[in-house]
Amino acid sequence: MRLTTRTNLAMRTLMFCAANPGRIVRKQEVAETCNASENHLAQVIHLLAQKGYLKTIRGRSGGLMLGRRAEDIRVGEVFRAFEAGPPFGRGLARGRE
Q1: Most buried pick, 12, 61, 77, 85, via CB within 10 A?
Q2: Which residues contact 94 (CB under 8 A, 6 or more apart)?
Q3: How far apart are alpha carbons 36 and 33 in whole angstroms?
Q4: Are 82 and 10 within 8 A, CB to CB?
Q5: What is the pLDDT along the chain (97 residues), one digit of tens a residue?
Q6: pLDDT at position 92, please?
Q7: What's the pLDDT score for residue 97?
Q8: How many CB atoms lie within 10 A of CB 63?
Q9: Does residue 53 contact residue 67 with C-beta atoms inside 8 Å?
Q10: DSSP conformational letter for 24
Q11: Do 79 and 8 contact (CB within 8 A), yes or no?
């Protein structure tokens, strides 16, 4: 099974937060650890926060932390949230052949 970069980054972000319980982690820390751009990571963090997986704190001493207990987050749920919908272009080319 191949994962999109976005799903991979979402899982890595959740694992990083789970490995640092009770601590507010910064987006820059996660980006450096995952070797990802902060802009791409920001999009992933936004979706994770919308779905309740992360809690974000704004401001100078802000960052992110798990929005649920690590034990309550199911990998399949996260995959479905990020892999929902077919990739762009799938099925379109076949219909025109």
Answers
A1: 12
A2: none
A3: 8
A4: yes
A5: 677 889 999 999 999 999 999 899 999 999 999 999 999 999 999 999 999 999 999 999 899 999 999 999 999 999 988 887 655 544 444 444 4
A6: 47
A7: 40
A8: 20
A9: yes
A10: P
A11: no
Amino acid at 23: R
Q: Which residues of 11-39 are buried (b: 16+ CB within 10 A; e: fewer)?
A: bbbbebbeeeeeeebebeebbeebebeee
Going 26 to 10 to 42 to 59, the CA torsion angle's sign is negative
C-alpha to C-alpha distance for 81 and 37, rounded to whole angstroms = 21
Instruction: Identify residue 75 by its one-letter amino acid code.
Output: V
Cα–Cα–Cα angle for 64, 57, 81, rounded to 5 degrees: 50
Q: How much is the pTM?
A: 0.81
Amino acid identity of residue 49, one-letter, is A
CB 89 within 8 A of CB 79: no
